[in-house]
Fold these 4 entries.
Entry 1:
Amino acid sequence: MSAHGQSGLPPTHNPKYIFVTGGVTSSLGKGIIASSLAKLLQSRGLSVTIQKFDPYINIDPGTLNPYEHGECYVTDDGAETDLDLGHYERFLNVTTSQANNVTTGRIYNNVITNERRGNYLGKTVQVIPHITDEIKRNILQLGETGKYDIVITELGGCVGDIESLPFVEAVRQLKWDLGSDNLLTIHLTLVPYLSSAGELKTKPTQHSVKMLQQSGVQPDIIVCRTEHPLPADIRRKIALFCNVEQNSVIEAMDAETIYDVPLLMQKERLDQRVLYMLDVYNDQDADMEEWKGFLDRFKNPTENIKIGLVGKYVELKDAYKSIIESFIHAGAANKCKVSIEWIHSESLQIDNSAEKLQGLDGVLVAPGFGERGIEGKIAAVKYVRENNIPFFGICLGMQMACIEFARNVIGLTEAHSTEMHPETQFPVIDLMEEQKTVTDKGGTMRLGAYACKTKDKTLARKIYGKANISERHRHRWEFNNKYLKDYEAAGMVISGVNLESGLVEIIELPSHPYFIGVQFHPELKSTVMAPHPLFVNFVKAAIDFSKTKELTKS
Ligand code: GLN
């Protein structure tokens, strides 16, 4: 992070605020636009953070089904957040926190708690000013830490949604409170192409901007998602009807990868435009050389592997967002194209695992909750363990590896996790002691960063290259230390432990070329600039495995 004063902003200043709103339809990629802009500003020496305000009533997405909302991203401080925070961290290589993701539920919860405490002095509590004041307080919170030159706020949902109204009103008020030099609104819309007419259509953009204007907010910049380049006359038309300057109409063409978007935005001079409008003098060009190096490695692979991802939410790829992105980072680090073969855990059994898994160069058994697909995951572990295929188990995937080992190597044929079988005779995976009295579901798992010590002379130590590591968690169950000696006697090595609690964090099998399971979620810490070593090494092991396969074939 740059110290203030090296960034083109005066040494003591208030941060500048940028809001990113969306219109016409959801899924236009506000998170990617926000992250790309943040990346460009960061590459100019500015210190930037991004936060997301979500209009839904859940306090956080922690209790949402992955089918509903994709992956739940966990921060170091244990917040269960929207998956866009993963993009922020992956693009910027900085950590986010609870303060970076606020929902309507949290806002109302705070206001209602204040009301019960009598903090409103007998006043009627209303959306305006109480809810909007609480939104504004939360928006300004990160800026007030003094750590940032620029705070980008993404507003979830679309303008015009009932739930979004208080947020848009808060933005309107803030522009008034802070002044237009300090606050800028970027509106992301869709400019569809009608193939029958052979034309790009601006009407949806006009309507969505009008909706924003009706709420009192005039966007300063309009970013247009489009499948075709925006010609000058279309830009002029959007500028004229939406009341912005023509160079504030930015084209956002569909990209081959999300990681191209910062460079596309740089070409469109979005960063320059933003700084000009916010009255920030910064003559440093965004230095994107390292980023381009990553893209070059990603787009010109010299190796090619196929990884099987065994999970129960495979119909919705967003449920495994961070894992997919981690493979992109690790693939680029190895100059290797990683193709993911999605394997539904419910479709796997002992007798079809050879058929489903034999062509793969590595298998990742994914995190998850509940009984569905469990036996498929265990069958996958058995197959890769017996056939020396590189294995990587994450959280539930690690737990399933422990169950498989107990059943088929130690000989505890009825071994299970008490999550799925509370009455099991051999609870090799059991509820953590402190979880036994917990009844609430929201925010009560073992969440966030915990320290772990890797054991000398193990694969884990080799991969991390150090003894003390910290990784993020999201689980209730754990390896049951009562069985530790049985595991060790049968050849499993416990290669990572939390020294404070004694909880097992990493397991491995030295008799296998590459078999590692982790109780934590390494995928939450992989970034473009710092690919996670567990993914980098798993990809490497899969490349080696694919080469030995080739050799034995010839
Ligand atoms: N359901 C398991 C637990 O709560 C694993 C959780 C996960 O994979 N994130 O311990």
Entry 2:
Amino acid sequence: MDTKKFEQSHFQGKSFLAVKDFAPEEIEYLIDFSLHLKYLKKHNIPHHYLAGKNIALLFEKTSTRTRAAFTTAAIDLGAHPEFMGSNDIQLGKKESVEDTAKVLGSMFDGLEFRGFLHQNVEDLAKYAGVPVWNGLTDDWHPTQMIADFMTIKENFGYLKGLNLTFVGDGRNNVANSLLVASAMLGVNARILAPKALQTTPEVLAIAQKFADQTGAELLITDDMEVAVKNTNVIYTDVWVSMGESNWEERVNLLKPYQVNMDMIKLSGTPENELIFLHCLPAFHDTKTEYGEEIFEKYGITEMEVSDEVFNSKYARQFDEAENRMHSIKAIMAATLGNLFVPKV
Ligand code: CP
Ligand code: NVA
């Protein structure tokens, strides 16, 4: 018998800060484990892999999905989640990341962090002594990736060889993460963005290294026709991310890149082979304060996605949002749950 296979899981005790820090097989494993945990949840089968654990949820930036997903996932796993917003704790204002990490790591078994600087989540992981999960930084959004590719796999049954097009701010945390995760999973990724917002050479180099291993084809372009041709997934995100405020510049740059029915048609992809994804929140109407303000200033009622596409048969963004919970559960259980995970 190959006893090596039964060594302690190499996920154990690890932090999840960016998809690039894991091996492609490990990312695949987390996607499949998420699907399994979704099955357990839907069939009311208990999965208390984190019974008795305490989880701290640190949020410098606001959140609906990530906060809700970490909270409910922790409770389903038998753990106790504790929310700590930026106005609740000393972090950054009166206490360094290093000192905060040491204190929280001595009381909590795992820490989630959403914030601005990626270096802060790296430092938390360095000093906490417990797994740290990145709930989004300016650079990366890794937990989102497990939910996204889980949703794609649910729809197509496989990942390798599919085409994915991200449209919008090609330099933001979601675009960066999608490019790297696609490359790792053998998904052909196209970033459709105006030149000023295209992938940086640093991020492209990280993705290309994985693509060389998996055979994924990567394309960074402002040519819409090429970017959407035969694509299977059209994905977009807000034009202005948290921490930014340059609305006018972005509206002007990105208006031609709105995901709408013309773009869907331009793909030429058969109806049942194309889905629309969005990490959310989305500006697809004027039912928000920002949406109203943008309408008043720039006269547009929809931004990155038209209301028609958002409510179309292609739309899977709410399945994707639900999957945040199942996938975050998988990430926490795999890294903190003393699970038997054969070498993947
Ligand atoms: N997709 C996502 O991270 O959503 P929240 O900002 O609501 O957490
Ligand atoms: N790029 C967006 C993602 C939100 C989930 C932001 O950082 O605001």
Entry 3:
Amino acid sequence: MTPNTTSLIELPTDLDGTQLPQHVAAIMDGNGRWAKQRGLPRMMGHKRGAAALKDLLRCCKDWGIGALTVYAFSTENWGRSMEEVDFLMTLFENLFQAELAEMVLEGVKLEVVGDLAHLSPSLYRAIDRAKTATQHNQGVRFTVAINYGGRQEIVRACQTIATQVRAGEIEVADIDENLLSEHLDTANLPDPDLLIRTSGEMRISNFLLWQLAYAEIYVTDTLWPDFDRRAFHQALLNYQQRHRRFGKA
Ligand code: FPP
């Protein structure tokens, strides 16, 4: 083991603390495959995935990364078996309840994005309670996407803006990129600098379509439950080797 990867509690010395992404987004893929490889039910993969997420959130705090946004459940995920959907919804609810005290203690500010109107009342209440309890926190901004689809989010924003135009509150000429951003679920969050996708798939799968316009994309074969600090370190090293041009020469 090299000295800078012994514990990884501190920022590894081969990373430049002034060039870290301020907002990291993650598509947490591969829970099912992780479980299958071990002859375990898929649900065990999701449980281990939740543990990996918890450590990543703590790592963001330890290393000074201000925002983490994760894709927990897409609008397409309703197509999974009822057993798996129910398991995931119960897992989310339990986590929002069980981890709330620690999130408050660690200064995490929780946000949940997506179409929440169709979640069960008890999950909705757990989300609402956790958001309210953490709303004034100044630490890592932790955003969880549940029943989220990037296209749907943009459509919802357009509907709100169109309603405002029809009511005479704004003019068509007032519609610009800033206005649209302000009507997305992620309003007030800076766009992600880095998108991490685990388990090797080279797709963004309807995640943060607008917000990822200039993000660096890092795909790793590591399955999500194995995505630990060492894997995050590799992702950040890779990110720091990129030259971000934002479309300029
Ligand atoms: C994708 O792996 C993972 C999910 C659909 C669920 C992710 C959820 C968690 C890690 C729990 C997080 C909890 C909170 C509160 C944010 P997959 O099932 O698609 O894996 P596969 O592609 O190998 O089948």
Entry 4:
Amino acid sequence: MSRIVMKFGGTSVGSVDRIKNVSNIVQSVYDEGHEVVVVLSAMAGETDRLINLTKDISDDFNKEEYDVVISSGEQVSVGLLAAALHENGISAKSCLGWQIPIITSKDHKSARIEGIRSDLINKILDDKKVCVIPGFQGITSEGRVSTLGRGGSDTSAVAIAAAIKADFCDIYTDVDGVYTSDPNKIPDAKRLDKVSYEEMLEMASLGAKVLQTRSVETAMTNNVALRVLSSFEGADKENIGTIVEEEDKINDQRVVTGVTSSLNDCKITLIGVRDKPGIAAKIFSSLSENNINVDMIVQNISERSKTTDITFTIPKDDLSNAEKIMDLIKDDVPYESLLIDSNIAKISIIGVGMRSNAGVAAKMFSVLSDNDINIDVISTSEIKISILINKEQAEKATSMLHQYFINENE
Ligand code: ADP
Ligand code: ASP
Ligand code: MG
């Protein structure tokens, strides 16, 4: 007997028929004698619908009430599934984030899980019931409802798996695993049998939305055995999916594991910033204090002049906030002008094999130049190379890089 957390995403619970299908999958695992905790997303489109309601009231909707509104979609899914399981003759009980409780930080809209009490979940499992928990939601130490950021149900599932010491955390979604690139955009992308935590972390943060980045982080730190599976193919033995695990358990000799594309970033350039110590610290600490994640940073070298230009990328959703911050710090960090470019795509190649293979960057740049694609900004780490290009060329760049690094290197 194993203890298993099964998470189902929005499309997997997108209609009553899909919820009945989930109920059958859960039943088949429960009937094998396992202890089962189910974590659910809101029905597909529901979170977007709720967000639009808040926008109809205000663009600056109160953050605490925002979480009250947008966490409600998950409550509907868990009630529907628990009842569908009852119809199947399985005893199930739903419990909401505050009832468990799942304690989070106070960063409404993108709170971090700080602790999960396992007593209630253990009690439900000891009673031989299936425990059904809404993903995405928690409660702050002040007793306010919080949410974990878009795609946050993945993180709820992994954190619950860690808290109750589950043997597996299975993420059921609308594709049958993690692919070398988004299978809905790159038709010849291949399913990976295994991928390392580190590679998955980079892939998720660089555009592969199949797993929320924090869920991979949480799995990595707590050593949670993570599997990505399809809810559309049933729970048969053919549905092997992808295992996300430690690098040393993976023997593949690949250099590049995945190619990702993200249209979620925008680029800010501060022109004519003074070239002296403390300036970059001031810019980036004020962004981080406001929870804005900066990704790429480029500062031009100023040989003769006393000023320089600083370029960086942030998520598009944070743009208006970042503009306000740059305005506020203008007295401390004078600059001539600020340029914004939202017409960009970030394309990345990722693979632990890059550590031991020289020349990958050179090959990447020649594939792009052969296809007339101009590179705007480059950033690298040990296991990834990211470039910024014009958004219109994103599909072509992803497909050409996938063709070169994955298909031709099989
Ligand atoms: P869920 O609603 O189940 O959480 P998501 O829509 O968040 O599902 O994530 C699944 C989607 O992730 C897939 O439909 C696919 O288009 C996209 N995706 C992007 N990159 C990848 C990848 N490398 N492998 C698999 N899916 C990917
Ligand atoms: N319902 C939330 C969202 O759409 C959380 C999730 O699905 O993981 O982002
Ligand atoms: Mg998701």
